[in-house]
């Protein structure tokens, strides 16, 4: 190969690299709403903060106070599953568990069994949707002192992570995102500062 050919090849490589760089910059500059445009997040009152604090559009979030997977016949979880099936999102994030800790009286095995039913129902109905499962957030020590069952969060997450591996869905561990100053007064819910970290972490995990 002569110098002319080498020069042409190098220019072509440089052009391809430049095009790739431009694409990456464009992807990085997309807004959170754009990244989550084809996504749906299901969850409880903690998840409600995503739209209550203006982080995501409410159209991309289906969340209700007190929602749990343990009672799969309850109106709330049934409506959430129905919403996912109707919307058929490219990516589906699940964020349940805090209410289940008390509903299950600290029984992590019962929780995982119930969550398994939800995941399998969604997988069967939405075969082309990528499913991601968020961990249960740790409660503050102040909350654990008044509601001791919340000390079981690590045990619940450990079993949930194993379930996700078995079901071949991605488990997203947000534990390290939580800082003491993010807790609301009840030691369970989160302040607005947490939610920007959370959506970035979900986007990274899902490659959005």
TrEMBL record:
Short name of any one Pfam family annotated for the protein: Lipase_GDSL_2
SGNH hydrolase-type esterase domain mapped to chain residues: 42-195
SUPFAM superfamilies in alphabetical order: SGNH hydrolase
Listed InterPro entries: Ester_Hydrolysis_Enzymes, SGNH_hydro, SGNH_hydro_sf
A GO term for molecular function: phosphatidylcholine lysophospholipase activity
Protein name as catalogued: GDSL-like protein
Lineage: Bacteria, Bacillati, Bacillota, Clostridia, Lachnospirales
């Amino acid at each position: 190969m002569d110098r002319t050919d080498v020069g042409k090849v190098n220019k072509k490589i440089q052009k391809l690299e430049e095009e790739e760089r431009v694409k990456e910059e464009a992807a990085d500059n997309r807004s959170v709403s754009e990244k989550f445009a084809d996504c749906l997040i299901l969850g409880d009152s903690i998840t409600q903060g995503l739209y209550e604090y203006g982080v995501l559009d409410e159209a991309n979030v289906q969340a209700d106070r007190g929602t749990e997977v343990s009672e799969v016949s309850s109106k709330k979880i049934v409506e959430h599953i129905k919403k996912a099936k109707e919307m058929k999102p490219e990516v589906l994030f699940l964020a349940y568990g805090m209410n289940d800790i008390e509903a299950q009286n600290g029984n992590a095995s019962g929780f995982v069994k119930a969550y398994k039913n939800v995941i399998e129902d969604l997988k069967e109905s939405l075969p082309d949707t990528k499913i991601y499962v968020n961990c249960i957030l740790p409660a503050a020590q102040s909350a654990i002192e008044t509601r001791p069952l919340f000390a079981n969060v690590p045990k619940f997450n450990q079993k949930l992570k194993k379930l996700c591996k078995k079901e071949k869905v991605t488990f997203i561990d947000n534990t390290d995102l939580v800082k003491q100053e993010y807790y609301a007064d009840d030691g369970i819910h989160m302040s607005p500062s947490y939610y920007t970290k959370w959506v970035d972490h979900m986007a990274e995990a899902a490659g959005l």
